[in-house]
Amino acid sequence: MMPVISKLYCSSSQTVLGVRRRPHMVNGGGFVVTDCSGQRVVFKVDGCGIHGTKEQLILRDGEGDALLLMRRKGGMVEALSIYKKWKGYSLDYEGLQTLVFSLKEPNSCLVKNNGIRISIEPRAASNKGWDFEIRGYFPDRNCSIVDIRGNVIAQVGVNKEVEKLMESKDLYNVVVKPGMDQAFVFGVIAVLDYIYGESTCC
Fold first, then answer.
1. What is the mean pLDDT of residues 175-200?
2. Rounded Cα–Cα distance for residues 177 and 130 (Å)
3. Alpha-carbon torsion 100, 129, 54, 32, what sign?
4. Contact 197/190 with Cβ under 8 angstroms?
5. How far apart (Å, rounded) are the C-alpha atoms in residues 202 and 200?
6. Residue 19 half-sphere exposure, CB side, CA atoms within 13 Å?
7. Which of 36, 48, 51, 86 fits as disulfide partner to 103, beta carbons 3.0 to 4.6 Å?
8. What is residue 40's DSSP assignment?
9. What single DSSP character describes residue 116?
10. From CA 17, how far away is CA 149, in angstroms rounded?
């Protein structure tokens, strides 16, 4: 198992979860994650519109309790950097924040060959300086979160029948491999959704 937020969100078997995007007028956008039957809500992501805070997202469990706060660093240093950096903080029942991951998004054509990379915090001794990267293109709903050894730990895809009926990417699924922290996976997906200006974006 690889808990990042909590082992409560790690399953011993592969899990398929459905994602349904919300329009901006509902809770500021974001999306809802359900089990494969579509009956049980597993996670919710509030778009930044609900809090009026740009570049800040919240992942909640099915009961609505906040699990993870994702925030993009700002300021002049960030504007001049070749990367934009996001920080993911786990939230406990008292509201205390603990940094659990950081995500680097290329901010310049100078680093166009480097994809989006994620580091687990506190940093483990990794030669590459990162633990996971995004391969593929999220807006096409065809991408993976891959570990440093090249193993796919989560895959974003679209059911072809649904895509034909809907002619949109508002419904898609995510396959999470056994032992991987599903809350962490959907925290990363929330940031991707924001980066590409989709349902979580203001």
1. 88
2. 19
3. negative
4. no
5. 7
6. 28
7. 86
8. S
9. -
10. 24
